[in-house]
Amino acid sequence: MKTISLLYIEDDSDIQEIYLDTIKEEVDTVHLASDGEEGYELYLSLNPDIILLDINMPKLDGLSLAKKIRATDSNVKIIITTAYGEQDNLLQAIELYLVKFILKPIDPTALKEALLKAKNEIFLTDKEEKKQIFMLDENTFWNFESEKLYEDNIEIKLTKNERRLLKLLSTNRNKVFTFFEIFNHISYDDFDKDYDANQVRALVKLLRKKVPKESILNIYGEGYRFNPIEDD
Questions:
Q1: Same domain? 174 vs 104
Q2: Span 3-40, pLDDT tens digits
Q3: Are 165 and 204 contacting, i.e. CB atoms less than 8 angstroms apart?
Q4: 3-state SS, residue 224
Q5: Which of 33, 51, 64, 153 has CB atoms 3.0–4.6 Å from 38's, for a disulfide?
Q6: Under 8 Å between Cβ of 141 and 133
Q7: What are residue 200's phi and psi, to 5 degrees?
């Protein structure tokens, strides 16, 4: 399971200390910052999964920091703490996609609930992303979503038709795709093209030079089936 890291940005070190135990119960790693600028620098270098920050901080306030982060990062989970008198500022944060606002003094239960919500969102995203990754051998994988093939984390260039073929086969690892189905898929934008099973065979032969051979099985008399290695 994915390990979770959290960046806690709060200018009052005593407040940080009070809630550290609660935070450490829910995440694997905690990093501390005492102002917005330091927090931003740590965010850039550490790439945390969750950011817990106060709305009122020196050098760079919490809302400005959250906006700066959201300008380039829609994935990191952000939780903002705020004093009662600062709540009007939260109207500015509607589009920042925060996990939760927590009113100070912080209720440990509310903090724990916010952290659990953030973790659940992270694990769900991680699970969905893994569904899109097919391991073809120990060193080679196909990313269904990005339509990219990698070996030793280096992208292997595919032609348009090679990419279309691999995309089609990986839509259903249990289905045998016929020559006709494959031809129709790779030729859908060329209406004048006549069906040619040999073109499909030639394309599979070319693709097999770029993927582990057993990744694409030839089902005699029927067609081809995708065959990634089983997940652990």
A1: no
A2: 899 999 999 999 999 999 999 999 999 999 999 999 99
A3: yes
A4: strand
A5: 33
A6: yes
A7: -65, -45
At residue 190, the 3 state secondary structure works out as: coil
Domain containing 146 equals: 133-226
- For residue 105, whether the previous peptide bond is cis, meaning omega lies within 30 degrees of 0, is yes
pLDDT of residue 232: 43
What residue ranges in 117-172 does DSSP mark as E strands? 133-135, 140-143, 148-151, 154-156
pLDDT digits (tens, 9 = 90+) for 128-140: 555 678 889 989 9
Give the type of residue at 176: V
Contact 49, 26 (CB under 8 A): no
- Compute the mean pLDDT over every residue in the chain, rounded to the nearest whole number: 86
Give me the numbers of helices (H) and strands (E) for the chain, helices first please.
7, 12
User: What tokens appear for 129 in the block?
Assistant: 């992303």
**Cβ atoms of residues 101 and 89 within 8 Å:** no
What's the maximum distance between 2 C-alpha atoms anywhere in the chain? Answer: 75
Map residue 194 onto helix, strand or coil.
coil
